[in-house]
Amino acid sequence: MPLANQNALLTDWAATAPYASLHSAWSATGANELTGGSPAYARQAVTWGSPAGGAMSLSGAPYTFNCPASSTVAWVGYWSAVTSGTFAGMFPAGNFTAFTFTAPSSTDTLFAPGSAYSNGTTVVVLPTAGSVLPTGLAEGTIYYVISASSDSFELSTTLGGSAINLTADGSGLVQQIASQSFVSQSTTSLSGGTVTAV
Q1: 104: cis peptide before it, omega within 30°?
Q2: Residue ranges per domain, the chain?
Q3: Among 26, 132, 148, 183, who pairs with 153 as Cys (CB 3.0-4.6 Å)?
Q4: How far apart, in whole angstroms, are the C-alpha atoms of residue 112 and residue 127?
């Protein structure tokens, strides 16, 4: 896609996503959003900078959220309104770089140039336009990196567990995720975020 089109796409998307939300788990519809607490959890109005080079970042951060006791924050969502509204998508918490990966089923190994993950790192995989995830992996599920070597690694559903058997080739994006769990009422801040058109 031409760069000018990528930037135009990001500008259009930002207009639909002026409010950020926190979620305990991935959802294609915006489910699993935090609720309750005292002071109560609420979405926060956010400001996006101008897109450049096919990427666009939050400006004016940090944005602070109230987090109820016994809650977990794993994903940041974006909406058209402070309540209800149209869901514009979500991203893994932690503001980490996403890497393109390929995965031939013959090896159960993901190859993600530039990633350099360590064993035990928590990651998620996401499809890109025109890509299909390898059979055996699911969008939004949190996995653990095992058998890491430079920019290649396998994934497990448990820390230090066995490798997931990939039964069909696939590709997509892999991104580190940093979940936070709160035993008691607390706050967390969204310190940044970048959206890239791919």
Answers
A1: no
A2: 3-94+179-196, 98-176
A3: 148
A4: 14
**Token duo for residue 120:** 């035990």
- Residues listed for the chain: 198
Entry pTM: 0.92
pLDDT digits (tens, 9 = 90+) for 101-149: 999 999 999 999 999 999 999 999 999 888 999 999 999 999 999 999 9
- The amino acid that residue 60 corresponds to is G
Q: What is the pLDDT of residues 136-164, one digit of tens each?
A: 999 999 999 999 999 999 999 999 999 99
Inter-residue contact 179 to 185 (CB < 8 Å): no
Angstrom distance (rounded) from CA 166 to CA 122? 18
